[in-house]
Design a protein that fits this description.
Shape: globular
Strand content: 5-15%
Mean pLDDT: 86
Distance between the termini: 50 Å
Length: 259
C-alpha cells in the first residue's frame, strides 16, 4: 500500500491519499482503530451514513483505517460560508443524532443503550452529493442518547465562550446552539447529570490531547511520566487542565441558560 500526500489533520488522526477513491486515516500515538472500525461496520449494516470502509486484515496496522474518499464541504464550512443557515444545520445535525440513536447498542446488554458518537459537530459531517456522512468515530461509545446530545451542545458552547475562538466562530457556534436546543428538548433533553459527564469527559480528552501534542513536538521521553522535565511542562499541563475545566464549566452554564 503506497501512502500519498497528507490531505488533512484532525484532533487525533491524519488522513493520507491512497488513490483517487481511497484514503488512509492513521491515528496518532498508536491509538488502536479496531473498535472504531467495528462500530462503523455495524452502523453501515444498519444503513447509517458512515464512510465506506476498505478491507482490514492481518496486514493492516491497528492504528489505520482505509476509507472511501469523500467529496464535498463539511457542514461547518457551509455554515461559515453562509451556504447553510444555523437553522438548516441544526435540523440536519439533530436528525443525524436522532437517527443514530435508533440503532441498538452493539455490545451493551442494557436495552435503552444506543451507539453514541460523542463528537458529532458540524466539522464532522461531510456534505457529499449523496447526502451528509458522519466521520471521526474515534470517541464512539454506548450509553444514554442524552449524553450524545449534551456532548454536541457542550462542544458548541465551548467555542461560544472561548475568547481564543474569535468573534465570527463564537457567534456561529452560539447561533447553532440556540437553533439546536429546541430539537434536543423534543428528543428527550440534556439532563444536568449528562451535561456534567460530558464536561468531565471533554476536559480529560482535551488535557490528554494537549499533553500528547507536547510530547510529539518536544520528542522528549521524560514527558511521558507527567514530570515537567525541568522546563515547566508539568506546570503547563496543570494550567491546561484548569483552563479546560474553566471553559467547560462556562460552557455548561451557557447550555443551561439556553435551555
Amino acid at each position: 500500500m503506497r501512502i500519498g500526500e497528507l490531505l488533512g489533520a484532525g484532533r487525533t488522526a491524519d488522513v493520507y491519499a491512497l488513490d483517487e477513491n481511497w484514503v488512509l486515516r492513521r491515528n496518532r500515538d498508536g491509538l488502536d482503530a479496531t473498535h472504531e472500525w467495528a462500530v462503523m461496520s455495524y452502523l453501515s449494516a444498519h444503513g447509517y451514513p458512515v464512510p465506506r470502509l476498505g478491507p482490514r486484515d492481518a496486514t493492516t496496522a491497528p492504528r489505520d483505517l482505509v476509507l472511501r474518499r469523500l467529496t464535498g464541504p463539511t457542514m461547518l464550512e457551509s455554515l461559515e460560508s453562509g451556504d447553510l443557515t444555523a437553522s438548516e444545520v441544526a435540523t440536519v445535525l439533530a436528525g443525524l443524532l436522532a437517527e443514530l440513536h435508533t440503532v441498538p447498542a452493539r455490545l451493551s446488554p442494557q436495552p435503552e443503550d444506543r451507539i453514541l458518537h460523542l463528537d458529532l459537530h458540524p466539522g464532522n459531517v461531510v456534505l457529499t452529493p449523496r447526502g451528509p456522512v458522519v466521520i471521526d468515530w474515534s470517541d464512539t461509545a454506548e450509553g444514554a442518547p442524552a449524553l450524545d446530545r449534551a456532548m454536541t451542545a457542550l462542544i458548541l458552547a465551548r467555542t461560544a465562550v472561548d475568547p481564543r475562538a474569535g468573534d465570527p466562530a463564537s457567534a456561529c457556534a452560539l447561533a447553532l446552539l440556540n437553533a439546536l436546543v429546541p430539537h434536543f428538548s423534543a428528543s428527550g433533553g440534556m439532563p444536568a447529570a449528562h451535561l456534567a459527564e460530558a464536561a468531565a469527559r471533554r476536559t480529560a480528552d482535551a488535557t490528554r490531547g494537549g499533553a500528547a501534542h507536547k510530547r510529539h513536538d518536544s520528542n522528549n521521553s521524560n514527558d511521558e511520566d507527567g514530570g515537567d522535565g525541568g522546563d515547566g511542562r508539568g506546570h503547563r499541563k496543570r494550567s491546561d487542565s484548569r483552563d479546560e475545566a474553566d471553559l467547560f464549566g462556562r460552557a455548561v452554564a451557557l447550555v443551561t441558560e439556553v435551555m
